[in-house]
Write a sequence for this structure.
């Protein structure tokens, strides 16, 4: 028999969500250090110690995000996730599932492509990491945040507490 879905995310899931959100914003907003390192090392150049240090921070945050994402997947499998609000149309429920799946995929692909570029010099991985993957991640973040007032206005469902207080 299948267990009932939780009404809210667990404390561990909430901490991972918000911690990862801060780390992701940090790496997205402060990616200039990695770009400076890339410009300095292109065509056999040498980066300054400051550029290497700043790039390392970006890389370490990305690797930490990969580890946390894998932990998050495990928690989601073990602890489950709240069901979509009952009033949400099936098409939007599907869109939410696809968006969350895309998030998890990017949580894994972004660090691996970053590792591929930074540690192994793979230009294709670097292009994917800093180009299409980054754009898609920003778009998903915008849609993810926009879903909160949309749920509230269109379907009168308050989904925010599921990831904050846990109270409906």
């Amino acid at each position: 028999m299948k267990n009932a879905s939780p009404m809210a995310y667990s404390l561990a899931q909430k901490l991972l969500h918000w911690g990862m959100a801060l780390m992701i914003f940090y790496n997205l907003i402060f990616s200039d250090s990695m770009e400076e390192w890339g410009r300095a090392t292109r065509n056999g150049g040498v980066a300054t110690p400051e550029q290497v240090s700043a790039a390392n921070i970006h890389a370490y945050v990305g690797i930490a995000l990969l580890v946390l994402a894998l932990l998050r997947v495990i928690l989601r499998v073990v602890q489950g996730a709240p069901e979509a609000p009952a009033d949400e149309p099936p098409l939007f429920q599907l869109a939410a599932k696809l968006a969350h799946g895309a998030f998890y995929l990017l949580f894994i692909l972004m660090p691996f492509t970053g590792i591929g570029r930074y540690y192994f010099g793979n230009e294709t991985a670097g292009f994917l990491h800093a180009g299409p993957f980054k754009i898609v991640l920003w778009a998903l973040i915008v849609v993810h945040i926009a879903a909160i007032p949309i749920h509230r206005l269109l379907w009168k469902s308050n989904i925010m507490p599921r990831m904050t207080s846990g109270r409906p």
Observations:
- The radius of gyration is 18 Å.
- Helices lie at 11-29, 32-41, 49-79, 90-120, 123-130, 132-154.
- The mean pLDDT is 91.
